[in-house]
Amino acid sequence: MAQKKWAKAPYIVTLPNGETQTVNIGGRVRWAIEELRKAGPAGRTGREALGPRWAAYIWQAKRVHGIPIFDAWESHEGEHPGRHKRWWLDCEILSCIQESEGQS
After folding, report:
1. How large is the average pLDDT for residues 55-77?
2. Which helix (H) or strand (E) holds 33?
3. What does the alpha-carbon distance between residue 41 and residue 37 come to, in Å, rounded to a whole number?
4. Which of 49-53, 56-60, 80-84, 100-104 has the least mean pLDDT?
5. Which of 36, 34, 44, 50 is nearest to 89 (CA)?
6. Residue from 57, 68, 52, 72 nearest 25 by CA
7. Residue 103 and residue 70: Cα distance in Å, rounded?
8. pLDDT in tens, 49-59
9. Cα–Cα distance between 67 and 74 in angstroms, integer?
10. CA torsion sign, 6 to 42 to 65 to 23?
11. Do residues 37 and 25 lie in contact, with contact meaning Cβ atoms separated by under 8 Å?
12. Residue 28: which of 6, 59, 55 has the closest Cα?
């Protein structure tokens, strides 16, 4: 049976103090973590990687799974100027599955 694209998968998180932990994440939280991994030091906002509930995915990654993520408010212009958050991983996080697995 084919695995869903964002099915739960294990990740190894290396915390800033060097400790490691393994977490299983799936669904949109996994998608958000992958977006942050791809972004690297540039980070991501909900305007750059469109997802309906970025703040909720980040909250769950931080509070439920213990993944260190930091953020900062930044202003933006455009038709509806305002502020939004930019998020960055504050850890190293590696997928325990091969890139071809679970990505279909």
Report:
1. 94
2. helix 27-39
3. 9
4. 100-104
5. 36
6. 57
7. 27
8. 777 788 999 99
9. 22
10. positive
11. no
12. 6
